[in-house]
Amino acid sequence: MEQLGFSYHSPDGVSYWDESAYYSFTSVQIEILEKVSNKLFRMCLKAVDHVIRKNLFERFHISATWIPLIKASWQRETPSIYGRFDLSWDGNPNIAPKLLEFNADTPTSLLEASVIQWFWLKEVFPEADQFNSMHEKLIVWFKQIRIYLKKGKLHFSSLNENAEDFMNMTYLQDCAIQAGIQTQFISVENIGWNGSGFTDLLEEPITAIFKLYPWEWIMHEEFGPLIPKTDTLWIEPPWKMILSNKAILPVLWELFPDHPNLLECYSGKDGGMKNYVKKPLLSREGANIRIVENGIVEAETGGEYGEEGFIYQKLHKLPEFNGNYPVIGSWIIGGKSAGIGIRESHSLITDNLSRFIPHRIT
Fold first, then answer.
1. Are residues 186 and 222 in the same domain?
2. What is the Cα–Cα distance from 86 to 98, expressed in whole angstroms?
3. Which residue of 14, 132, 173, 255 has the fewest C-beta atoms within 10 A of its own C-beta?
4. 8 A C-beta contact, residue 1 and residue 107
5. Which helix (H) or strand (E) holds 246?
6. Whether residue 292 sits in one domain with residue 175
7. pTM score of the predicted model
8. Which residues fall within 8 angstroms of residue 94, CB to CB, at 6 or more apart?
9. What residues make up the domain containing 306?
């Protein structure tokens, strides 16, 4: 694992990469996941357009300062590289996979889904296949976005102290290099300003930047208010502020009521549901989640999120396999379904102690 750059396989001595088991899928199951993921992404784009046209930004707790930037990036069709749907599904082809949420801005577990589990497959089941074209699609998509870079350099940025973010970002940077793009890394805290634009440590202009750093955090950075004053290209683009916010889930339910791949969902209220999951608009690693069943709190996690508000999503329990509860992370790259990675927990809430489990196609 370490030879492949997967340095965070055992954080704090706890195994994150777990090959003591694997999940097996049929080609029919994979086809279902691929079709559902493509359909969900098209629905999400329609939802973004709806939010922008109807000016529903208040529901997302997005301040007026950022609305023009979001609208401009949407109108210009500023490119998006990737995203990860979290799906609940037990593999039964007669029951539709359900969307739990969309990690649209800073999804991680990309390295292990794209590279690590592929090397595992080739060593353990060399003749088998896997739902995994992520690496190839990333390189192809980076080639396609070169036109947006105006022959300039693409900077990559994350926080140095976060090993997982740094390695995921480094992997994406390597894909860009393979696509023929000139790149440069700069940590978020070192992004500079020369009075008219952003600069790196060499005082070179930052004309385009891929950031593995959430937009809601950027808003509060010292350089945040300067972003609307420049024409720097940001990837993931500002319009992803809408999709990365869980307020998109009630919007999807309103636009596509009773859709088989969606769960009933409301903003700021439980809608009369007795069985639901209360989630903050912005949160990570399963923080500040509450599961209510028959009006009784069955599980709850702590954390520092929730200031912006909550959504209430109908409870749809994860499938259980020998005391393990998997979430299927279905990756979208360049707007298309590209593969899956599975995280597994011992509880119904997938938190920072979840494990990554590889898969194969039988």
1. yes
2. 9
3. 14
4. no
5. none
6. no
7. 0.95
8. none
9. 264-314
Strand partners for 98: 88
Does some domain include residue 57? yes
Counted domains in the chain: 2
CB count in 10 Å sphere of residue 88: 18
CA dihedral angle for residue 173, residue 246, residue 229, residue 143, rounded to 10 degrees: 30
Each residue's pLDDT tens digit in the chain (362 positions)? Answer: 888 888 888 887 888 999 999 999 999 999 999 999 999 999 999 999 999 999 999 999 999 999 999 999 999 999 999 999 999 999 999 999 999 999 999 998 999 999 999 999 999 999 999 999 999 999 999 999 999 997 789 999 998 778 888 899 999 999 999 999 999 999 999 999 999 899 999 999 999 999 999 999 998 888 899 999 899 999 999 999 999 999 999 999 999 999 999 999 999 999 999 999 999 999 877 889 999 999 899 988 888 888 889 999 999 999 999 999 999 999 999 999 999 999 999 988 887 779 999 999 99
Query: Could you tell me if 47 and 252 are in contact, meaning their C-beta atoms sit under 8 angstroms apart?
Result: yes
Q: Helix and strand tally (H, E) in the chain?
A: 9, 18
Tokens of 135: 């690496």
Please indicate, yes or no, whether residues 176 and 282 belong to a single structural domain of this protein.
no
Measured between alpha carbons, how far apart are the two ends of the chain, in Å? 24
Distance CA 196, CA 183 (A): 22
Phi/psi for 256 (5° steps) reads: -130, 65
